[in-house]
Amino acid sequence: MLKHSIRYFNNKPVRAVWDNENSMWWYSAVDFIAILVEPNSPRRYWNNVKVRNPELSPFCGQLKLYADDGKKYLSDVINEEGVRLVLTIIPSKYKKAIQDWIKGLLDPIDEQSKKKAYGFYKTELLEEDEIGKTVALQKIHAYLFEGLYPFAGKIRTKTISKGGFTFANGDFLPQVLKDIDKMPDNTFDEIVDKYIEMNIAHPFMEGNGRSTRIWLDLLLINRLSMCVDWSKIEKNDYMGAMRASPVDPKPIHRLLSDALTDNINDRELFLKGIDCSYYYEEEE
Question: What's the mean pLDDT in 160-181?
Answer without folding.
Answer: 95
